[in-house]
């Protein structure tokens, strides 16, 4: 079975963390398009699924003739429909406004916002054909900002605005748009953040990736008459 017989799920950031977990959850029923930055990281993931192909691109390189444009020009003609588009790729960019230089701001915003818009735009005809779902993996940082995370929060606030605008634009075309806002999750990015904060890593304080996947499934499995527009899932605490 392949993209001609299965529903299609395109997932960025699918080589680790939440993106990989969503890919594993969909693997039995969907043809997967596994997005990642390098062929070395994407290849082994693709090989582990019954129906999958790679989408290799540096999402920060989104200008004319860049890595992302080239990858999309090869991918889009192959996909007649996209049932689920999951935007999971993201950069952290931890640091204060005083510390972070403009180049870092540009790179994080390019990956976390601009590439999301560009990929969605390129796949909209296929999403409309399937009356599909765009699932944007946002963050609690897309709802509340905090010191030391201004860049990441700015990118996630912008991603929420993008989701809200896209949702209204695509209602007439049958495309649903969900913002998924996990709290702190036990992932590689969380290790990076805790190291930046100088704390001790205690996985019991964070959401399991599987809990985020279950929240994503709420949107993916919604009945045809329903749209799950925003989901916030946070660690329960003790």
Automatic annotation (TrEMBL):
Keywords: Oxidoreductase
Gene Ontology cellular-component terms listed: membrane
Domain of life: Bacteria
Family statement: Belongs to the short-chain dehydrogenases/reductases (SDR) family.
GO molecular function, one term: oxidoreductase activity
Pfam families recorded: adh_short
Gene3D superfamilies: NAD(P)-binding Rossmann-like Domain
Residue ranges occupied by any Ketoreductase domain in the UniProt entry: 7-188
Keyword Transferase: no
SMART domains recorded: PKS_KR (SM00822)
Keyword Nucleotide-binding carried by entry: no
SUPFAM superfamilies listed in its UniProt record: NAD(P)-binding Rossmann-fold domains
Protein name: Short-chain dehydrogenase
């Amino acid at each position: 079975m392949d993209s001609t017989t299965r529903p299609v799920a395109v997932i960025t950031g699918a080589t680790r963390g939440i993106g990989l977990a969503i890919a594993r959850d969909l693997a039995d029923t969907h043809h997967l398009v596994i997005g990642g930055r390098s062929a070395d990281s994407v290849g082994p993931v693709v090989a582990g699924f019954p129906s999958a192909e790679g989408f290799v691109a540096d999402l920060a390189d989104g200008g004319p003739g860049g890595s992302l444009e080239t990858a999309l020009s090869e991918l889009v003609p192959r996909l007649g429909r996209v049932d689920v588009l999951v935007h999971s790729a993201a950069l952290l960019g931890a640091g204060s406004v005083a510390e972070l230089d403009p180049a870092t701001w540009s790179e994080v915003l390019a990956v976390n916002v601009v590439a999301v818009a560009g990929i969605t735009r390129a796949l909209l005809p296929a999403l409309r054909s399937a009356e599909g779902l765009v699932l944007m993996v946002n963050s609690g940082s897309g709802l509340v900002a905090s010191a030391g995370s201004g860049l990441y929060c700015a990118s996630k606030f912008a991603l929420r605005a993008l989701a809200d605008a896209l949702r209204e634009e695509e209602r007439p075309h049958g495309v649903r748009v969900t913002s998924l806002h996990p709290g702190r999750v036990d992932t590689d990015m969380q290790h990076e953040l805790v190291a930046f904060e100088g704390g001790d890593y205690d996985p019991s304080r964070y959401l399991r990736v599987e809990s985020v996947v279950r929240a994503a499934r709420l949107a993916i499995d919604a009945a045809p008459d329903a749209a799950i527009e925003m989901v916030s899932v946070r660690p329960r605490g003790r």
